[in-house]
Amino acid sequence: MKKIYTLVLIILALNLGIKAQTIVTDRPDQTESSVTVPLKSLQIESGILVGNEGNGDIKQLLIPSTLLRYGLSKNIELRFVQQFENLKNELTSEDNFGISDLEIGAKIQLFQKEDVNTEIAFLTHVILPTGSNNLSGDKFGTINKLAISHVINDNLGLGYNVGYDNMGEGEGDLTYSTALGIGLGGKFGTYVELYGEYAEFSSWGTNFDSGLTYLVKDNLQLDASFGLGLNHDMYYFSLGFSWNISNI
Asked: Residue 5: what are its φ and ψ, rounded to 5°?
């Protein structure tokens, strides 16, 4: 059933496309863009997510998850991530609700030229153990990614990330993602994506996701997305928006 569902998503994606637009977002896909937000603008990217892992034993609800991006300079943005989370274990009936650990970071655009179809940026976050009981990792952590994108032609683009995360213990995880966008014009956009991690340098996790975006106006975008675990039991569905406020 999952394979059929994934195939339907891919066919849907190939028939909707992505429109070039003023606002460039880091949601709803897992691949971070290689673009920073404009100077002195604040971009709010927020949404709700419903997910399940382990045959539905672990239920997750984010209400909401919010990323704030502020253009500190032409090539540098500051980033803040905070989310309200409900995590329920159906096997033990443990039910935790509260605030997850705060993430503070930056994205730095390393390479961008008008006559070159490749852009590169580096993203780093520090995780602060500020979350509620049973939702905090209780340790400082870090998330790091190199974001690369290519404009293949007017209707086709490719973005991918490689990174390393460490949550304060163990060897950490290598992470990867690659997202393909196909443009057919209009206000709708879509993507198909593979992403995952090499957890503790010992086991691979691989996932697929896809989503739709709708450009309400140049600085406001709505989105819907969902994902599936390809070699483990996981799925999620998310709804959200992104809004850029200039000259702050």
From this structure: -60, -45
> What are the two backbone dihedrals, phi and then psi, of residue 93, each rounded to the nearest 5 degrees?
65, 15
Residue type, 239: L
Alpha helices in 29-161 (DSSP H): none
* CA of residue 125 relative to chain centroid, distance: 13
Q: What is the CATH number of the domain that holds 239?
A: 2.40.160.40
CA gap 67, 46 in Å, rounded: 6
Q: Which amino acid is at 246?
A: S
Is residue 212 within 8 A of residue 222, CB to CB? The reply is: no
- The total number of structural domains that make up the chain: 1
- Expressed as residue numbers, the domain containing 197 is 2-245
Residue range 171-212, pLDDT digits in tens: 999 999 999 987 667 788 899 999 999 999 999 999 999 999
- Alpha-carbon distance 78 to 46, whole Å? 16
